[in-house]
């Protein structure tokens, strides 16, 4: 059971954090990409110092790092890092958020007052059915809420407060880390694993209660450049080679009613042509390749390559180049060497009274990148729903379930973490 004062603390922190505009920005020259993120990062560093956390630092790249010293010291226990990101998505307005707490939800639609066309109901928010009697937090209709990921931030700060105040809860050394610019895909670009100094980590950035993610796509990208022969159309006969036409031919040859994002789900992969730009002289096509297994990913790359070769054969005067760039890999490949990070999280979720649900994520996460660098980092739920838009919502009680899960998790590591290896330094 979660004590009532924890619910109050979670709510107060959450409301305070979502009011700060921390929207990140694509292709910005700075890191973090926006000044609002610094405001929240500084505030978190100050709060952690007030709470008595050790080694509180705000790095030059905008990472807040802090230590909660072990209360169950044993030389062979790993250090466990917990991460959340402070930025909100650039896809929808994220400034002047006016959070609204709908106490003791009674069922039925929730109308958002600043734009009454924005309504939460059981069609667009089916999980609301299970939240009768809970406290639902939404924005006011014209902005996103930012529960992604300020719920994660509020949960970790409230957990830190609790652990620092009560030395009787046994846990190993814990590192807290708050990161900027996750939503623009750069969240761990400047995070040093040596600085983080943990053997295993979790991101708190997941959705529905009970969810744990330790599988994600293997991802590559194909960049196809078609170079034609440009010439004035008036004297083009027999001489022009139109790269635009060749590009559309290639686009037509790619799978259309299968193996695309719009026709797949679950564990199915895809080939996603998402950007074409250019002219008669040259066109570039950008194609995302996704599959849960490396084998399948290779097969998709091969298909794109062979289609490029076909185009090349049909029009030898053009130049068709296909470059495959590596993006990220399924974190399961690293985790399956020692599944303890997943098993202990599942047990923590059960102890919080929930059923663990493992959903393979159809994207990458900061955790996937960290795992690939050698720091095993599954992702845990915080209770966010409908992120990145005006109907984003969260149940305060789900946030409390996330808090409780983390509280069990750190104690489980003290009990069962002996000898765990994970990240061992560069
Ligand atoms: Zn997030």
Unreliable sequence segments = none
Mean pLDDT: 96
Supply the number of structural domains. 2
Largest sheet: 8 strands, mixed
Report the top-level CATH class of the largest domain. Alpha Beta
Q: Strand sequence of the main sheet, in spatial order? A: 1-2-8-3-9-16-10-15
Indicate the CATH topology of the largest domain: Aminopeptidase
Give an account of the 3D structure.
This protein has helices spanning 4-18, 35-51, 147-165, 193-196, 243-253, 294-314, 332-335, 340-351, 366-372, 396-416, and strands at 54-58, 64-68, 80-85, 100-102, 110-111, 119-120, 136-138, 174-179, 200-206, 211-213, 218-227, 270-278, 282-291, 319-328, 357-358, 379-381, 393-395. It folds into two domains: 4-215 and 331-416, Aminopeptidase (3-Layer(aba) Sandwich); 218-326, Alpha-Beta Plaits (2-Layer Sandwich), CATH 3.30.70. It is globular and about 85 Å long. Helix 1 crosses helix 3, helix 1 packs across helix 10 (396-416) and helix 3 crosses helix 10 (396-416). The chain has ten helices and 17 strands. The chain is α+β, with helices and mostly antiparallel strands. Strand 5 and strand 6 (119-120) form a beta hairpin. The strands form four sheets. An eight-stranded mixed sheet has the order 1-2-8-3-9-16-10-15, covered by helices on one side. Strands 12-13-11-14 form a four-stranded antiparallel sheet. The mean pLDDT is 96.
């Amino acid at each position: 059971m979660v004590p009532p004062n924890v619910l109050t603390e979670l709510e107060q922190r959450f409301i305070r954090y979502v009011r700060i505009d921390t929207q990140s920005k694509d292709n910005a020259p700075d890191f973090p990409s926006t000044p609002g993120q610094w405001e929240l990062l500084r505030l978190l560093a100050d709060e952690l110092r007030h709470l008595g956390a050790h080694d509180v630092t705000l790095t030059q790249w905008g990472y807040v790092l802090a230590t909660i010293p072990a209360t169950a010291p044993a030389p062979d226990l790993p250090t466990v890092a917990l991460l959340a990101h402070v930025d909100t998505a650039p896809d929808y307005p994220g400034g002047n958020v006016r959070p609204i707490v709908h106490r003791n939800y009674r069922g039925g639609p929730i109308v958002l007052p600043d734009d009454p066309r924005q309504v939460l109901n059981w069609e667009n928010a089916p999980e609301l059915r299970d939240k009768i009697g809970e406290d639902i937090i939404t924005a006011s209709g014209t902005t996103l809420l930012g529960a992604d990921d300020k719920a994660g931030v509020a949960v970790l700060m409230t957990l830190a407060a609790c652990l620092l105040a009560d030395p009787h809860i046994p846990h190993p050394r814990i590192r807290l880390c708050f990161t900027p610019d996750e939503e623009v895909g750069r969240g761990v670009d400047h995070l040093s694993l040596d600085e983080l100094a943990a053997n295993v980590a979790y991101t708190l950035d997941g959705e529905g209660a009970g969810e744990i993610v330790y599988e994600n796509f293997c991802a590559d990208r194909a960049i196809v450049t078609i170079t034609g022969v440009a010439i004035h159309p008036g004297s083009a006969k027999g001489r022009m080679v139109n790269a635009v036409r060749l590009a559309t031919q290639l686009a037509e040859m790619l799978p259309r009613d299968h193996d695309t994002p719009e026709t797949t789900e679950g564990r199915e992969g895809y080939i996603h042509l998402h950007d074409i730009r250019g002219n008669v002289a040259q066109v570039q096509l950008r194609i995302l390749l996704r599959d849960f297994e490396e084998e399948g990913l290779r097969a998709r790359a091969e298909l794109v390559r062979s289609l490029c070769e076909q185009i090349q054969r049909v029009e030898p005067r053009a130049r068709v180049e296909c470059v495959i760039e590596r993006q990220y890999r399924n974190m399961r490949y690293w985790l399956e060497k020692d599944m303890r990070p997943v098993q202990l999280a599942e047990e923590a979720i059960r102890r919080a009274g929930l059923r663990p649900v493992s959903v393979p994520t159809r994207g990458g996460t900061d955790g996937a990148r960290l795992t690939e660098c050698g720091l095993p980092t599954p992702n845990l739920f915080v209770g966010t729903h409908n992120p990145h838009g005006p109907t984003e919502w969260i149940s305060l009680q789900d946030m409390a379930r996330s808090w409780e899960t983390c509280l069990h998790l750190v104690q489980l590591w003290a009990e069962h973490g002996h000898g765990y290896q994970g990240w061992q330094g560069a």
